Amino acid sequence: MPDCQHHPPSYTGLQKTANHVGEKIVTMSKASMESLREKIVADNTTCGLEKPDLINAEMDGRQKLCKRAEYLRRCGVEVTCPNHTGICTANVAEDAAIGNEEAWATIVGEEIADTLSINYLTTDGDSKTHTVMKKSQPACKNLKDPRHLVKSVKRVFWKSTFSADLFQKF
Ligand SMILES: [Zn+2]
């Protein structure tokens, strides 16, 4: 940007611009994603795969709340992003579909169903995403992410109290 004699835009400036062209960005993004899906099928066909539309996928929905909201919550204030005092940097509203894995999986599953079929879907161990995904992707099978399981086991392990003579010396 500085090379083009432009000042780098601020986060709020970028957000305002994005809101102006939001609908066009959605249309362009959908077209771009569709061409990527078609490229996957074409590449799989070139590779000689028996079912070129069959893919393996991984899903994990996360929602990032803003620092201001986290601070206000710690102070006991009930807050809703982005409708609170000060600057809000949350990437989505708390009740937006992306924070709700099931709603997100429904949208994604239906969107890609015209081009791709999901064979294995890897999700967090506690995720219900797979159940919802099966509605639009009936052949989809679920794999649980071992990273998530290891993290949960570690958390429980560190909370545990061990007696000094639990591990015997030989
Ligand atoms: Zn916020």
Automatic annotation (TrEMBL):
This is Mutator-like transposase domain-containing protein. Residues 60-155 form the Mutator-like transposase domain. It comes from Mizuhopecten yessoensis (Japanese scallop). It comes from the Eukaryota. It holds the Pfam family Mutator. InterPro entries: Mutator_transp_dom.
